[in-house]
Amino acid sequence: MNNQTAADTSLRALCQDCLRVVTYQNKEELLAAHNEEVFCQCSGQLCACGGCTDDIALLENGEFNAFDSLLSGVVKWDAETGATFAFKGGKA
Fold first, then answer.
1. Residue 54, CA distances (Å) to 5, 24, 60, 61, 83 in order
2. Residue 1: inside a domain, yes or no?
3. What does the pLDDT look like over 41-81, one tens digit per residue?
4. Is residue 47 part of a domain?
5. Containing structural domain, residue 48
6. 3-state secondary structure of 72
7. Strand 72-78 relative to strand 46-47: parallel, antiparallel, unpaired?
8. How many CB atoms lie within 10 A of CB 13?
9. Is residue 92 part of a domain?
10. Confidence grade of residue 2 (pLDDT, cut at 50, 70, 90)
11. Cα–chain center distance at 16
């Protein structure tokens, strides 16, 4: 996990659109992101709730199935760039 300390991992938020992980320097920055005062670079909402921090751990462990939808699935992910999604057949 990129040599991060436990304190570093508690200051992270997950983008709800691209699944990028954003790390903040302090709790005030994290709270601003969580309260939708700051957005991901893709314009997605950021969340730092317990469920989203659990989701970050799943992504870091390569467990992408939890993020599959009826239309797409995660085929590649890293914290800096987020997810690459693959369309799952059918009509667009």
1. 16, 17, 10, 11, 16
2. no
3. 999 999 999 999 999 999 999 888 877 765 578 888 999 99
4. yes
5. 6-87
6. strand
7. unpaired
8. 25
9. no
10. very low
11. 6
Q: Residue 74's Cα: distance from chain center in Å?
A: 12
Cut 0.90: pTM above it:
no
Residue with tokens 């709800």: 16
Beta bridge partners of 83: 77
Q: Which amino acid is at 45?
A: Q
Q: Tell me how far apart the terminal alpha carbons of the chain are, to the nearest angstrom.
A: 37
CA-to-CA distance for 77 and 92, rounded, in angstroms? 23
Q: Is residue 10 part of a domain?
A: yes
Confidence band of 10 (pLDDT split at 50, 70, 90): confident
Quick one: DSSP state of residue 89? S
Structural domain count, the chain? 1
